[in-house]
Each structure stands twice: as C-alpha cells, then as structure tokens.
C-alpha cells in the first residue's frame, strides 16, 4: 500500500540537510509520496527505512545500468516531465548499430572506442554498440559479438537479435559485460526472459504500441526480469514524441508501473541528416538509448552537444573542478593567476593563457560556478576566502616568488588580500581575458 507523505517523513533522518535537493525532509517526503522523487537522492536514509518504504520508495522510472565499469550508463530514475521543473538526470546513451554480416564491423567498434571528446570539461562519447543478427546464423552472430567486445572493451553492448538460441550463445561470450538483450517480443518473451534472468542482463521489450507493450512488460516481469527497456515500435519523429511522452506521463503522473522503464528508440535511416534529426527529437523527448547507424563526427558532435545541454541542470551553472591548473609547463618562476570555477570563465581565461605561450599556474576557485564579478558580488570570491584557498592549495611550495595575479575586475580586493595573505604580493591583472596574452608576454 502506498505511504502518505507524513508516513514517509517519519522514516527520514529529519536533519533538513538539503542534500536531496529539497529544502526540508518533509518537502522531500511529499514529493516521494507523489512519485516525483527517488529515495536514493537522500544519502543518509537507513537501509531499514528503505526497506519499509518499499513500493513508495521505488523510482517511478526504474533505474539500472547499461554496461559495466567506469563507462556504464545509468538509465531511468527521471522524475519530471520538463527540465525546468527540476532537472533531467541520466543522459540518453548513444548507440551505433552494426550488422554481424558487415565487413567493417571491427573498424566501427574501434571508432566507437575512440569516439570520446572533451566538451567544456565533460567527456562525451558513443556509449554503446548494438550488434544486429542479420545473418540469421548463431555462429556468425557469436563471432561478431566477440569481435566487437574485444575491439571496444569499454563500450556497453546491445544484443539486437530476436533468435533466442543465437542470443543464448552470444550472451555467454560476453556475460561479464551485462549486455542489454534487445530481443523480447510477445512470441519469445519466456525464452528471452529466461536468458536475461540467468545472466542478470537487462532486456528490451518490443511491441507495437503502448497497450501491447505494457502487457508484454508485465509478462516479462512475471518471468522474473526487473530491468526492462521499452521499445514501443515508434519509427517516425511524430510517433517517437507521442509514444515517449505518453510513456513518461504514465510513469510519472499515473504511477503506471508497466511503463515505468527507460525507453530505447531506433532511428536508423538511409539518409544520415534525417537520422540525426530524428535522433535529436528522441534525445529531446525522453529516450534513454538512441540507436543510430553510423558515427560520422559531425553527427555525434551535434547529438553530444544537444544531449549535454538538455541534461545540464538549469539551476546549476556549469563548473570545473577547484584546483591549481598548470598551463604549459610552468616552473617556479612562472606567473600565478586566479579565477573562479564557472566553466565559461575557466575556458576563456585558460585559453588566453595558452595563447600567450607563457607557461603559468592558474588557480581556479570553487565559487559555485559563478563568474568573477557575480561571485564577488555574492560574497563567494572575497579576500578571506581567496586567502584560505591559496594557503590550503600548496602553491607556495611550487613558486619562488609569492605573487598572485588577481582578475582586474576585482582590483578592489587587492588591499584586503595583502592583509590576509602575509608575505604575498598581490598584482592586479587585466580586466578582460583577451588582454591576458599581451599582459603575460609583457611580464616575461
Ligand atoms: S537529504 Fe535526507 S536528511 Fe537531508 S533534507 Fe533530504 S531527506 Fe532530509
């Protein structure tokens, strides 16, 4: 039986620590009761409380991993229809499909293994390879799966095959990678569920339309498989938007468990531009996995960028890690500058330091992702806080002259900072980042 917000509240730590993203334990409890939050967001809740919460604590959209290891992709666990209500949490995985009859199969797998790019401090990559059984032959399929697994050792694997015997052989070869079995239909559900259960692998349920799909997921669950991915058969952009939205709404607003799972969309088209466009629609509207046919760099860059923007928390500015960054190969005599950890600020400042060709140390201070002036105005980039950060950073042991170059926009801090940082010289640097190269070269 579902618990009320007050009943759930009684089981929470009641410290109002806000780590869950809600201002109080009661607010979190109320949201949990509505199915709009996941109990795992509270790091301090006891195991006993979790067990007691039972169904009430189950996320409205089941959460599990695609793949294993560091690069596994967490799916599901979404709690809102619209990003501005809170945030979307688990970015859609991009998977590329290869056929077991394709001569270039190994090359595609290698390309996936090398697909990672760095964009504003985040590593983005093609996450998975879907291996399609086009040959209809178990031995050919198993060999293809092994070959892909070997060439792309970190990628998640999707076994795209409706033949239970072929899946059984292939899954044994890569069982440690926990492949997603994309093969259950109404006809073969029992056999596929048995394989998925035996190897603790997630299973895609494929049906034509949402009614048939919910019947199928219940059937699969009855066979003992919990980690299910939904394929509603949506093909056109219109169908993808409609089906994915209805699935999300049923799970979140109606607590309809048979559709409370992540969604996979196959968007493969002969026309690459069309394929990228439909993939983009799926990423925007609730897909957890989008399957494409090839990984041209223009296509993946566009999809990665869109995915990154959609899954960025709208209430939290993009941030980089607080630390002392070494740009070039600085020595004890190199300049030492400071800025804040707003990603854009960091990338502009570090880019201009690089342009100067003057090796430097750049201290990036955690100001909750605010730019220099905003952080100063918000009391997060103050003389006392900067002094504490510099003293704890250990930079004094790396440079021969204790000189700190402040952003020109906060020149006002220089006097107070000299008082707080005993033995340091505080120099005011340029107001604008584009003046940094001339400034640093002038000092060299
Ligand atoms: S994280 Fe847990 S203890 Fe902290 S406010 Fe949220 S529910 Fe309460």
Can you put this structure into words, describing what you see?
This protein has 444 residues and is an alpha/beta fold. The protein folds into 3 domains: 5-57, 3-methyladenine DNA Glycosylase II, Chain A, domain 3, CATH 1.10.15; 64-310, TIM Barrel (Alpha-Beta Barrel), CATH 3.20.20; 323-443, Rossmann fold (3-Layer(aba) Sandwich). It is built from 16 helices and 17 strands. The chain has an 8-stranded parallel sheet with strand order 10-9-8-7-6-3-12-11. Strands 13-15-14 form a 3-stranded mixed sheet, with helices on both faces. The chain has a two-stranded antiparallel sheet with strand order 1-2. It is globular. The protein binds iron/sulfur cluster. Iron/sulfur cluster binds next to α2. Iron/sulfur cluster binds at residues 12-13, 15-20, 22, 25, 28, 42, 44.
- Average pLDDT number: 93
Strand order of the largest sheet: 10-9-8-7-6-3-12-11
Corresponding CATH architecture of the largest domain: Alpha-Beta Barrel
Structural class: alpha/beta
Strand content: 15-25%
Which residue ranges are poorly predicted, with pLDDT under 50 across at least 5 consecutive positions?
Answer: none
CATH topology of the largest domain: TIM Barrel
Tally the helices.
Answer: 16
State the CATH superfamily name of the largest domain.
Dihydropteroate synthase-like
Q: How large, in whole angstroms, is the Cα Rg? A: 26 Å
């Amino acid at each position: 039986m579902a618990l009320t917000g007050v009943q759930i509240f009684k089981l929470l730590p009641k410290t109002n620590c806000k780590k869950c993203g809600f201002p109080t334990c009661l607010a979190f409890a109320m949201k949990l009761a509505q199915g709009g939050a996941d109990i795992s967001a509270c790091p301090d809740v006891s195991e006993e409380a979790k067990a007691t919460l039972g169904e009430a604590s189950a996320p409205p959209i089941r959460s599990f991993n695609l793949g294993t290891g560091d690069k596994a992709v967490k799916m599901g666990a979404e709690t809102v229809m619209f990003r501005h209500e809170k945030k979307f949490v688990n970015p859609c995985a991009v998977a590329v499909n290869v056929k077991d009859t394709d001569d270039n199969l190994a090359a595609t797998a290698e390309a996936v293994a090398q697909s990672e790019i760095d964009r504003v401090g985040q590593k983005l990559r093609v996450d998975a390879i879907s291996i399609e059984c086009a040959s209809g032959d178990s031995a050919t399929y198993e060999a293809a799966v092994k070959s892909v697994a070997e060439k792309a050792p970190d990628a998640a694997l999707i076994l795209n095959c409706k033949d239970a015997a072929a899946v059984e052989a292939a899954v044994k070869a890569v069982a440690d990678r926990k492949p997603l079995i994309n093969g259950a239909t109404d006809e073969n559900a029992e056999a596929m569920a048995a394989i998925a259960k035996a190897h603790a692998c997630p299973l895609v349920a494929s049906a034509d339309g949402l009614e048939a799909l919910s019947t199928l997921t219940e059937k699969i669950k009855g066979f003992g498989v919990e980690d299910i991915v939904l394929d509603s058969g949506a093909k056109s952009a219109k169908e993808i938007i409609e089906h994915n939205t209805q699935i999300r709404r049923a799970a979140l607003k109606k607590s309809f468990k048979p559709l409370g799972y992540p969604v996979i969309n196959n968007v493969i088209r002969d026309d690459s531009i069309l394929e990228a466009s439909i993939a983009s629609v799926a990423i925007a509207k609730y897909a957890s996995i989008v399957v494409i046919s090839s990984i041209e760099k223009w296509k993946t860059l566009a999809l990665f960028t869109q995915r990154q923007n959609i899954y960025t928390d709208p209430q939290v500015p993009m941030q980089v890690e607080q630390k002392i960054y070494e740009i070039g190969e600085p020595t004890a005599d190199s300049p030492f500058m400071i800025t804040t950890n707003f990603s854009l600020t960091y990338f502009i400042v570090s880019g201009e330091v690089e342009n100067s060709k003057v090796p430097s140390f750049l201290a990036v201070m955690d100001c909750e992702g605010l730019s220099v002036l905003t952080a100063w105005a918000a009391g997060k980039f103050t003389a006392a806080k900067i002094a504490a950060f510099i003293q704890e950073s250990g930079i004094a042991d790396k440079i021969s002259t204790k000189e700190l170059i402040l952003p020109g926009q906060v020149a006002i801090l220089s006097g107070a900072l000299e008082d707080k940082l005993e033995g340091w010289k505080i120099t005011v640097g340029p107001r604008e980042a584009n003046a940094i190269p001339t400034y640093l070269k002038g000092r060299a």
